[in-house]
Task: inverse folding
């Protein structure tokens, strides 16, 4: 877990305002745990996304790990008294903030419906690793805490069997103005064998495609970006590369909007914030269909 956090430092740093301090306090005695490194990274990224709006200018986000012995852990997290790995995110805001999370949330209770999508997804991944999330007074002084079992590694589920993961060798252009999600998509797709080019806005994406220096096989296109919107970029791509597969990524989708994107020439859709295995699966599916490998 410590290695995942250390490897994610630059990614996390890029998602925060320059005036916000990011501190790591990682327990060197933390035992190893069995899990999918990319999914663990996604937990960290999503939890940071959830708390970053609570940071004022000049605030501090402290990420720490430690070993904690607890009794009375919910059955889904292991049952008997055991050692748990604790991942804490502590916010020190320089200006008052209004937390979106309802106070007093017990660790055994599900997160409220109004929790952000990033937090809901993080909770799902934590639970899949046999753990649970803590927030409210029980997490204090942390704002959010993720707990993972570490003393029965053979019982920890294998979350994403490598043989079941969608893989490929094609070149993917990822277009997203959020550095964290852009890096997460790049890292996750590269791990699965794809070649990845990134662009932080629509104009950059069109330049990459028009220059033709790299033969792009598919585009993963964020819909909501400053400057050229994803829909305008999609229509521009259709003007000079009508056969290039495009997958739309958006956190705001209705049946009408997806119909509109399909009419504009999109071949697929993934909801944000996304699981990297879902993106890889959609990429593989769209590429296979484009090449007639799926009936």
Result:
């Amino acid at each position: 877990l410590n290695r995942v956090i250390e490897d994610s430092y630059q990614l996390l740093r890029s998602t925060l305002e320059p005036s916000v301090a990011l501190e790591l306090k990682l327990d060197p005695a933390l035992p190893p745990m069995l899990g999918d490194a990319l999914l663990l990274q996604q937990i960290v990224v999503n939890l940071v996304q959830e708390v970053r709006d609570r940071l004022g200018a000049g605030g501090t986000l402290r990420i720490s790990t430690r070993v904690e012995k607890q009794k009375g852990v919910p059955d889904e997290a292991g049952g008997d008294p055991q050692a748990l790995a604790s991942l804490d995110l502590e916010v020190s805001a320089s200006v008052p903030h209004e937390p979106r999370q309802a106070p007093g949330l017990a660790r055994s209770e599900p997160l409220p419906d109004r929790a952000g999508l990033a937090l809901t997804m993080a909770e799902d991944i934590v639970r899949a690793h046999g753990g649970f999330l803590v927030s409210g007074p029980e997490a204090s002084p942390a704002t959010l805490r993720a707990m993972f079992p570490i003393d029965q590694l053979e019982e920890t589920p294998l979350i994403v069997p490598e043989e079941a993961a969608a893989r490929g060798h094609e070149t993917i252009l990822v277009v997203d103005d959020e550095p964290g999600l852009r890096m997460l998509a790049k890292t996750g797709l590269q791990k699965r064998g794809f070649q990845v080019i990134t662009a932080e806005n629509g104009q950059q994406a069109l330049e990459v495609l028009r220059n033709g220096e790299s033969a792009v096989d598919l585009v993963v296109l964020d819909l909501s970006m400053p400057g050229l919107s994803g829909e305008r970029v999609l229509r521009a791509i259709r003007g000079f590369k009508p056969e290039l597969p495009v997958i739309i990524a958006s956190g705001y989708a209705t049946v009408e909007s997806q119909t509109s994107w399909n009419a504009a020439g999109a071949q697929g859709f993934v909801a944000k914030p996304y699981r990297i295995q879902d993106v890889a699966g959609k990429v593989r599916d769209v590429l296979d269909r484009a090449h007639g490998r799926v009936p």
User: Anything to note?
Assistant: The chain has two domains: 2-155, 162-290.
